[in-house]
């Protein structure tokens, strides 16, 4: 196995506790779209109901799913316009309330100080939102320009579980999958990393206590080789992968 020298990190609910805030803003906009398009929803979407269904997917991915489910149509220009509006709504919420995932800052600081690893962010979310998130919590200094977005960085926008964004990031960084590991909190993110040939650490810290066991199983089934309950376990998870135990 090649020596691991690169750590690829998902952003939302892996580095920062953003999912709940983002989905709140997103739900408001989706309910507005449903009204405009005369989509008969059983009940309006809430941040919580969207999270259950779409965690790890970006807004464009959600819209594609919802159009298929409810049989309404949106022109590409209209979709682009809503994607921009969703970004604005969510960034405003994040700038107001966002905090880092507990323990993530300590690990990033230690990894950066060691000089052994290249650190990069690989997210489904729009680049502007990811940058706003890591700026807000003071993590941007660890990544520099190595921030990659499936919604923004690729020639054709996509969303995890498509592995395209991981493949793109590795190509830009000049790294092979054997040199990298990924840290992911969602099924779609874990699938994305695994399909790109990466060993994935599945992180279940931000989930509610009663959901963690289930999510652990979901992430393992999606390909996570080891599960991390808390960032304090990161070193041991990494060591297991480096020793070739998983």
TrEMBL record:
InterPro entries: Beta-PGM-like, HAD-like_sf, HAD-SF_hydro_IA, HAD_sf, PGP-like_dom2
Named cofactor requirement(s): Mg(2+)
GO-annotated molecular function: metal ion binding; phosphatase activity
Keywords: Carbohydrate metabolism, Magnesium, Metal-binding
A Pfam family this chain is assigned to: Hydrolase
NCBIfam families: HAD-SF-IA-v3
Record protein name field: HAD-like domain-containing protein
Naturally occurring in which organism (per UniProt): Staphylotrichum tortipilum
């Amino acid at each position: 196995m090649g020596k691991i020298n690169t750590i690829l990190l998902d952003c939302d609910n892996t580095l920062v506790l953003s999912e709940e805030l983002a989905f709140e803003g997103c739900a408001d906009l989706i309910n507005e779209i449903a009204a405009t398009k005369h989509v008969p929803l059983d009940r309006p979407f809430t941040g919580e109901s969207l999270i259950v269904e779409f965690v790890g997917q970006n807004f464009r991915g959600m819209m594609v799913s919802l159009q298929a489910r409810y049989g309404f149509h949106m022109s590409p220009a209209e979709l682009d316009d809503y994607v921009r509006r969703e970004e604005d709504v969510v960034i405003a919420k994040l700038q107001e309330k966002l905090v880092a995932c507990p323990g993530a800052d300590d690990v990033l600081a230690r990894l950066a100080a060691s000089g052994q690893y290249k650190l990069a962010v690989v997210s489904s979310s729009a680049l502007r939102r990811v940058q706003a998130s890591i700026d807000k919590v003071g993590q941007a200094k660890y990544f520099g320009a190595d921030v990659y977005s499936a919604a923004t960085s690729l020639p054709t926008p996509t969303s995890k579980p498509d592995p395209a964004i991981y493949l793109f990031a590795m190509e830009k960084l000049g790294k092979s999958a054997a040199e990298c590991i990924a840290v992911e909190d969602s099924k779609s993110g874990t699938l994305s990393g695994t399909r790109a040939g990466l060993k994935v650490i599945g992180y279940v810290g931000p989930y509610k206590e009663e959901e963690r066991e289930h999510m652990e199983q979901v992430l393992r089934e999606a390909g996570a080789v080891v599960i991390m309950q808390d960032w304090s376990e990161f070193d041991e998870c990494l060591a297991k992968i480096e020793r070739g135990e998983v």
